[in-house]
From TrEMBL:
Residues 1-24 form the signal peptide. PROSITE patterns: PROKAR_LIPOPROTEIN. The keyword Signal applies. This is ABC transporter substrate-binding protein. It comes from Streptomyces vulcanius. Pfam families: SBP_bac_1. Keywords: Signal. The keyword Signal applies. InterPro entries: Bact_solute-bd_prot1 (IPR050490), SBP (IPR006059).
Length: 452
């Protein structure tokens, strides 16, 4: 949204005043001699906030006697963090939209090196290797992902039954179902980037995985091939063709967000929603016990488009990142909170009432789907399947998690190719220029090589 310079300046000053008035100052005193630890989080729903209070805040406070944790919820959290960190203020635990978000602050010395805490708590042994490495910059750890995320196909079982089809196993079957749905007056699929343009990264990442392949993207990240490689050009062109056929929300891609898309899926207006497993949390508003339709929602891998790629394969990412403020007076306490969140116990409890956001990326994700109900059961199963897929090396990379920050941001503008205002080669020429500058600065995380 365009704004005048005066409005931007005014908004920035207002944000500065609000944020600095809320800053913890690096560890304020609390009752009983405990120190207060601050975590700013996005403006989740009342039920989600209740879960956060009971499982994280109360659980952490009871687990030790030195700190009290305070979580503040606000939809402008990314902006508030940006303003606060620029003034060397802000929360002790820094929540961000992903490792690429955190890397940008790490190179500005706004985040603390967490490598000593990783050694103390054994995080590298506990966390899946690609997820751990995604938070490193210049060989040091600056963030940990709160959750493993995968891109795939949400589907409405009743709609597929009405169309007389099964769950698609191939790309040809998938597009055939979407064509049939369109002829029946439905959306071929529902999704959209209304209010959050980085949603675009989901879909270009998905095509990079299933057209170019995880190995090709890995080679580009290592500088072995350029982003203008024919395999990657084809992935960009295929994503544009997919968009132009109406396979991403029909004509309403710019007018829908994830919550509205899930509502349409629940109402039988489309057979599919393509997106990240974090969308289970949006689905819970439309597929729940009150509506009695939780069993209607299914999740499956997105099928490969290029023959011969490993199958099933996923696009690996995360929902958010957790870091320590370089100017916190309680870095040890902040590390304790993050360690508390990197546990199976925390994952077990959070996922009972908040599916979609807390698939803690543990190498041994031993949660039993049978012990859960509703969408939590389906979500936990999806995380276990993703962990197994990663174990086989069958994965690609989500831009916002594994690409350096400016490169990830540049991929957000893929919609220029989709809308026909820019060619794939021109788009990727700019990507290559941006990436080369970041690689020269050592901003590419050292991720493990996938199988293919």
């Amino acid at each position: 949204m365009s704004r005048s310079g005066i409005r931007v300046l005014g908004a920035g000053l207002a944000a500065m005043a609000v944020v600095l008035s809320a800053c913890s100052g690096g560890g304020s005193s609390a009752s009983g001699g405990r120190q207060t630890l601050q975590l700013w989080f996005w403006g989740s729903s009342p039920q989600q906030q209740k879960t956060m209070q009971q499982v994280l805040v109360d659980g952490f406070d009871k687990s030790q006697s030195k700190y009290n944790l305070k979580v503040t919820f606000n939809n402008a959290v990314d902006k508030n963090v940006q303003v606060a960190l620029s003034a060397n203020e802000g929360p002790d635990i820094v929540y961000g939209s992903g490792p690429a978000f955190s890397a940008a602050y790490a190179v500005q010395d706004k985040l603390a090196d967490m490598t000593p805490y990783a050694k103390k708590y054994g995080w590298k042994d506990r966390i899946l290797a690609p997820m751990y490495e995604s938070g490193t910059v210049h060989g040091k750890l600056y963030s940990l992902p709160n959750s493993i995320n995968n891109l795939g196909v949400f589907y409405n079982k009743k709609v597929l039954a009405e169309l007389g089809v099964g769950v698609p196993a191939t790309y040809a079957e998938l597009t055939a179902v979407m064509d049939k749905a369109a002829k029946a007056g439905m959306y071929p699929s529902v999704t959209g980037n209304k209010g959050w343009k980085p949603v675009n990264q989901n879909y270009i990442s998905m095509f990079l995985t299933h057209v170019a392949g995880g190995k090709a993207v890995y080679d580009a990240l290592q500088g072995k091939i350029k982003w203008t490689d024919p395999k990657i050009v084809k992935a960009v062109d295929d994503s544009a063709a997919f968009y132009k056929k109406g396979y991403l929300g029909g004509k309403d891609y710019a007018n829908l967000n994830f919550a509205e898309s899930m509502q349409l899926l629940a109402k039988g207006k489309s057979p599919f929603f393509f997106g990240p497993t974090l969308a289970f949390q949006f689905a819970s508003d439309s597929f729940n016990d009150a509506t009695g339709n939780t069993s209607d929602l299914g999740f499956a891998p997105f099928p490969n488009i290029t023959p011969g790629l490993p199958s099933p394969s996923g696009t690996l990412g995360t929902t958010a990142s957790l870091s320590i403020n370089a100017h916190s007076a309680n870095k040890d306490g902040a590390a304790e909170v993050i360690d508390y969140m990197m546990s199976e116990k925390f994952a077990q409890q959070m996922n009972r009432s908040w599916p979609g956001y807390w698939g803690v990326p543990l190498k041994n994700f031993d949660l039993d789907p049978a012990s859960y109900t509703g969408l939590s059961k389906a979500y936990v199963q999806s995380v276990k399947d993703t962990v197994a897929t990663v174990g086989k090396g069958n994965y690609g990379f989500f831009a916002g998690t594994f690409f350096p920050p400016a490169t990830a941001t540049a991929f957000t503008d893929i919609d220029g190719v989709w809308l026909g205002t820019e060619s794939a080669t021109d788009f990727l020429d700019k990507i290559q220029t941006t990436f080369a500058a970041e690689k020269a600065k050592g901003l590419v995380p050292p991720v493990p090589e996938p199988a293919g």
